[in-house]
Structures are given as structure tokens and as C-alpha cells.
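the two lines:
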Amino acid sequence: MKLTVEWLKEFVRTDAAADEIGHTLTMLGMELERMEESPLGPVLDFKVTPNRGDCLSVLGVARELCAKDAARYRPTDLMRECVNGFALGDEEETAVGAGVEVLDPDLCPRYGARLFRGLAPAQSSERIQGRLLACGMRPINVIVDMTNYVMLELGQPLHAFDLDLLAGSKVVVRRPRPGETLKTLDGIERKLGPDMLMICDADRPVAVAGVMGGEDSEVSGSTKNLLLESAHFDPRSIRRTRKALGLSTDASYRFERYVDPEGVVRALNRFALLVRKDTGTEPVNGVLDVYARPPERKPAKVRPSRWNLVLGVEVPEAAAATGLQALGCRVTEENGSLVATPPSWRADLRREDDFVEEIGRLWGYEKIPESLPIGSTLQGGETPEPALTSRVKRAMLRLGFTEVINHTFGDLSPLDADGERVRLRNPVAPESALLRCSLLPGLAACAARNRGRPLFLFEAGKVFLNGREFPALGFLMSGRLLEEHWENKESPAADLAAAKGMVDLLGELLRRPFEFQANDDKRFHRHRQAKVLAGGRELGLFGQVLPEVADGLHVREDAMMGELDLEAILSVPEATPRYRPISPFPAIRRDMAMAISSKVPYSELESAVREAAGETLERIWLFDVYEGEGIEQGKHSLGIAMLLRHPERTLTDEEANDVRERAFRALEALGATRR
Amino acid sequence: MNQIETLVRKAEGEVNEASTLKALQEMQVRYLGRHGEFTALLRAIGGLPAEEKPAFGKALNEAKARLENIIEARRAALRKEDETRRHAAEPQDLTMPGRRMRAGLPHVLSQAADRIKAALIGLGFELIETPELELVKYNFTALNYPPDHPAMDDQDTFYVDDDHVMRTHTTPFQGRVFEERRPPFRIFTIGRCFRNEAVDRTHHHTFHQVDAFMVDEGVSMAHLRGTLGAFARAMFGPSVTVRFRPDYFPFVEPGVDFAISCPFCEGEGCVVCKRSGWIELGGAGMVHPDILENYDIDTDRYTGFAFGLGVERIPIMRYRIDDLRLFMENDLRFLEQFQA
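prediction for all of em together
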């Protein structure tokens, strides 16, 4: 909201410069966003929080400044007049010549009006126009300008109807009848919902209450007779209506944030005074005022013990009471506590702590000391779910992967998992309507974006599938495993074995040994994919994406991708390693070369060897695989190495040979022939 | 005896002529080895008269020792020559690139999140995770957002249906905690939030927040300020102080906005703090008594504070990043600027 400093100084006497006023507003909770220059001097542009509709005016800001520092900001005579309602003396009388009827007092607790007759066409004064312009409003004609002026000054939106265009010279405040429509000031024919409050004349709606007037009753420069509306509308209803109509006006903005019901007549009076001054026209004697429901303001007990506890700083009772009074509260004392009743313009002050905030705000938050909590000492840490995600991220970093963070919203992708998806009702764009069900599409997009270099990427994040939201790990490996360098010109590219090795090692790092099985996910190459399991639970998969899919996503065809369900991993108990003594005796290596049918899985060979070799087998690994010339069709040649070591003594060559012999025999039982 | 002397002379001559370590090694074996010439001489001892035997033996051993010394000296000389030669032959150009291993790189936002986690865990807070697809109940209702209230205006929300939204902040974790735990507690969460906003350099529909709150007996705004001060100093350095200014969030009362003294210019005024000396970091306040009451917590016995801030702000300030969109574009040319 924008206000000129000179306007403010009509309400408060101070020698504070604009900067200081701006800073004081900020420290009161109205953050100064900008300071502008205007022909009328500096303009403050500040934010008002949605709970403080009463600060959307010169009056409201002046009130806050005076309450904050009574020595520095003193009310002017105009401010005093304002507080007294700019009384004209005819407020008790009822104006003659038009009527007001409120049929829906729940939505319109108060409706006031003044009548003006025989207005001469005029421009508003330079001062009024200048202030409106400085505050970001466009001068239109004297009537509209005055309504805007009063709204900025007092926070009460006014609406002027051309009295001659109101059928039956009356205003009826009601909900619309079925089928009624209204053409608003912006020229749009509006359909009206059953709960929108309307200002009507004897026949039809002429304005959307608190939001926008109708074109048909609009005032112009030539309007002679006027019905000036000043009302208090239900904030929630105004908000619903303006949202339904897709309209937001300066008036609706204020009504939504609560307009002082006790300020209704004051605003009418202020308008009359300004009109008298600038055009010489007197208002019709008396007001029309239907005040069905004065707001209830309940007193609250405010205990010194409470504010001292909550604020963490001692505020003397006298200072607290003075502060609340300066804000307009009625304050009494009862058994060592204050009893405060909020003013009519503060619907936000309901309970003790609301007043505590006001006491603290005026006392100054800068006086609150820093202190660390005492009392219960609590153990900081991570609960299991985030702890596992952190651990998985660390493991992937140890494995040399770079972390990426992709969007939750996306479109359909050939890399999506099968299942039920979640769709946004109001996406930013149609292609961002689905919540991701897999991390793979995002990783593929990262690969496409960073094409032309080896990529080892991962993401740990939430995915949404089949009614579940769960954390997942996705990864992508593509290109050379070793950086290009003159000493390693050649390097294998990431392939199924590299992916399996990586996932296997990940399982070790997580202390949940993974198992692998053949898999048939349609997104992946038929023979180049695997399912990952642990403790009998399926955790996820990895493999080489189908070439046509990779191609369509601009990803290298040999890229390996995979995804694991971290919730599933978490459900697998972590293995705790148990210490084994380290043998100080030397180890002996024995190699075995054999030919065997390619159909026999390596895992069977390995377990056969393990079983046959017994306790001296420390490590077993596959060091060679060959098929082709010299090997029978359907077979391959394997080289398996064993590292043997005895826990208590040096193993002899003969013993090592015995182990190899036993292992070979076990392999032969599976169909292997020695080579 | 002369035989011994002759042999040593001959050997010495050869040793000093040896031009490689390998040749020297061969000589050593030839003269001193098990089947070497000295051993052969030793065998000759058997043919000597008994009275000559000790003298001969002694002389032989002395000669052997002398030769060993000569060989060792020659070996040292050869080694040195060898080294000098090798260094001359293989000049190392250390400006050539080394062979690098692949090092994992955490995302710049994760780096910030990790620092935040470490700081808050150190202050006794426990990290929990709650859903990104959240119930309206937790996102708004339980946080005291009145229906049809303008406070919702800065929370442009993605709806899935009438009851489910993409969380607009991380604060809904409060309701979930209140349902599961009784005070005292200190808890925080960190994660993605979503607001239906047009994307530009300074706005995004997806961003990250951290939210923390504690409820205990006697908790005050001074504890809030102290905790935020300790947190800010852990994040930004020992000279940082915290400033409060009144602000409004429906779930706190009193509500404040907290700023830190600019750690980049020590309050002198710079680009990061827009010459003000202060950087606004987030929102905070005392847990609203309405909320405590909703969960049957005695507001006279227990009070609490809460605070929240954006994760992106931290690298934006620290590295002067000027475009919020970069964080989720995953261009490695961006991410690799922030090694960790």
C-alpha cells in the first residue's frame, strides 16, 4: 500500500523524516518495501499483513505510529476530529428521499448512506488528485475521486450510486434471485451465485456488494443526485464472491480484511466535508443507517505472568496497559491482571496471546534477549526414514555419482512405471499435471540435457504410485567408466555388469545384501535387465533402456538406468557384521579353468565351490569368461580363482591342491570339464 | 695366501668395472655365492697342513668381508648413477593433467540441507519426514487458517482433489507431530513445497523449506531468538545476530519475521543485503495457543516456538546465484561449480 508522507503528517505531528517513519512501520509489522518520490514528496510503499485490514489507511498507520512512540508521533487536530467521527451533527436524523433495506444482515451487518442533491459538475482539487496519483490511483471525476480519497484516508470503501438511476429511489441489500445478472463497471455481464451479496434497487441488482458497481447506476461527471454507500460486509462472503467472479478491487481487498463497522458514518461525514469544501454542495440532512449487528467485542484477561513468559522479557504492567490503550483497547485491572477489550476495528484481537503480541510489538522485539531453551534435554537426530535416505545419498556419493533434483510434476513418459497415477486439478501447464511415479524420466531428461559426456547421476526423492507416496532412488550410468586420459585411452562403457556391480556394492554399503533375478520389465532391453531383491522383498530393478525409448528421450542407447524403493529397503533389516579374527598366515591362490554349458548359472558354480572348498576359502572370483573358437557350441570357458588361507597355520601347497581338487570335482558334478 | 690376494684383486678389478647393478649382482654370486670362487678356495683348505689351516681360514674370511664392502660401495655408486641417469631420461612434466577418479557430487541444495540438518540436530532437534501430497487438514485447517481468509492468498495451491493438495509449506508436519507425540519435543523437517506461481528468475512452483518447532514448559520468544541465533551462527559464522520484526502467520502468535545481520558485509551494506545490513531469512513465532488447544495441550503449562525458512535462499546468498530455475535444471555446468 502506498501513502504520501505529507498526508500522514496531516494526522500525526512529527519531525521524523520519511526514512525513520518507514523504519518504524517495518518494526511495527508493516514492512517498508520501497520509498518513492512524488510531486508531493516521499511516498511510503509498505506491506500490510492480511490480519491487519485496519492499517490499510492513513488513519490506521497514524494510529500505529502514535501507539508505538507517543513522544515522537502526536495526533493532530485532524486526527482528533477523525477519532470523533467528523461529526456533522445530523447523524441522529434519517435522511429523506431514499430508502435502505437490508434483507441479509448476516452478510451485511451495517449499511449506511448519505444523499447529495444538485451536485455541480467539477474536477476534484489538485491536492486530492495529486494524492491519489502519488498513491497509485487514477483521478476520474470529483465523486469517484472523493470516494477513493476517503477510502485511502480512513480505510472505508465508499460507493456512489446515481440516485436518479435507482428504481424506486431505494437500495435493497439481498442475495440475487434465480436468473438475475449484472453488468459490472468493467462492462462484463456477470452470472450471480446464490450466496453473492447484491446491492439492488427496487427492481434489480445494481452492484456486487463490496466488490464492484454496476454499469447502469454508475456515476459520471454529470451526476447531480447521489446516494453514497458506506457499509460493513462479511469478510468471508466478500472473499468468496470476488474469487468466484475473478475480480479483485481496492474495495474488496479491504472488506476481505475487515473494515471497521463503527467507521461507516464517519466515512460518509468525511466525504460530505470534502464535497462541501471542494464544490460547495451540502449533503441532504441526516443519514440512512441500518445497523443490524454491531460486532461483539469480548474482553480478555491478560496476565503479566503470561506476557513475561511468552515474550521472554519483562514488560512493566503500566507500559503494557498504556500500549494497549494507545491501540484503542479499553483496559481495566482486575486481581493483578489486565482486562482488555479490543476496539471495533480490531477483529483480530480475540484471546490473551493476541494482546501479548501487541504488548511485545509496542515494547519492541529488539528488547527480547537471546537465550537457549532449558528444561528437558532432547536428543537430536534423524528418524529412520530420512536417515535411510541420507545414508543412500552418501552411499551413492561414495560410488562416484552426482546428485540431481528433478521436478515432481511432469507428463506421461515411456519410462513411467505401470500403475495408478495422481493428477493435479490445477496444473501450471497441461504437461505438468501428473505427479511423477518414477525417477527415471527425470534422470533421462538430465542425461539429455548433459549429453556428450559420461554420466553417473542419481536422485533420491518421493514418487507417487498406486496410492502410495514413497522415497525412491533412481540412477543413470552412461559412457566411459574411466575419464579420457592419455594413460587410459581405452575404457569400458557402463554396461549391465557395471550397473550390477554398482547396485551390489550399494547393498553392501547399506548392509542389506542384494540378490538379483531375471526380470521382464517392458521399458528395458529383454536380456539386459535385472530385478533387485533383499530378504525376499522386491526392491526395484535396473537395466538397459530399450533403444527406441532411449532414442526418443535423447539418451545414449547403452545407458543403464535403475530405480529402488527406499521404503522397501528400509523394511529389510540391516545386517550387523560380526567380527572375525584376521589370520596372520599367508594365503595361496589357486585358479581353475573349465568349460561348462552357458545355461548353468555362475551362482551355482560358486556355491558348489564354496561348499567343496570349506573353511580355508577366503575369497572367490571369476577372472575369465570366454566363448568362441576352441569351445564347444553352447558352452563357455570360465576361470575361477580362489584365495585360500588357514586361520591357524601356514597352508601347504599340497593342502591347497587338495582344495582345488575337491572344488573341481564339485564343478564336474555340475557338468564342467577341466581345461 | 697369495691365491686369496690374487682372487680379491681380480674380483675388485671386475667389480669396479661393473657398469650395471645386474652385472654386479652376477659377480657377487660368482665370487661369494654358494658355488662361488671363494667357496671353492675354502674347500681347498682341506689340503693344507693343519697348522696353516686357521691362518688361511682367517685370511679368507677377511678377504671375503673386504670384497663384500667393495661390492656394496660399488652398488651404492651404481644406484646413484642409475638414478641420475633415469631422472635425466624421464623428465616429468607436472603441468600435465593427472588421472582423476570420479568423485560423487551432492546437489547444491542437498549441501545446504545437510548444513541445516547438522545445525538443528546439534540443537537437539529431530528430523522427520511427512508427505509432499498433503491433506488440506494439515496444510491449512490444523494450522489455524480460517476458511476464506486472505492469508491463503500467498499460498496459491495445487489441488489434487478437495481434500488433497501439494503442500504449500513444510509447516503441515506440525499437525502430524501433534497427533503422534506429546510434549516436550523439538522436531524439524526439510523438503519440497509447491505453490501455483508463474516461474521466473525469482519464483518457482517448486522450492524447498525447512520447518522446526519445539514445545516444552516455559518456552519463550527469547528461546526462539536464542535458537535462531545459534542456528544462524552455525550456518553463517560467529558474528551473526538475529532481528525480529512483527509479521503474521495464522499458526503463530506472536508472529515474527526474522532477519540476520548480513554475514557478507558485517552490516556495512552490500548487494546481498540490498545495502540494509539485514537479510530476511524466514518466518517464526510462538505456536498458536489455538493449535495447542486443538491437540489438548495445556497452554498454561506448555508453550512452543516454530520457525521456517527457504533452503534455496542459502546457496543463492552464498554463491550469488541469480536464477532460481537453475536448481532443478540439473545442468552439470551449474552443479559442478559447487563441489563439496
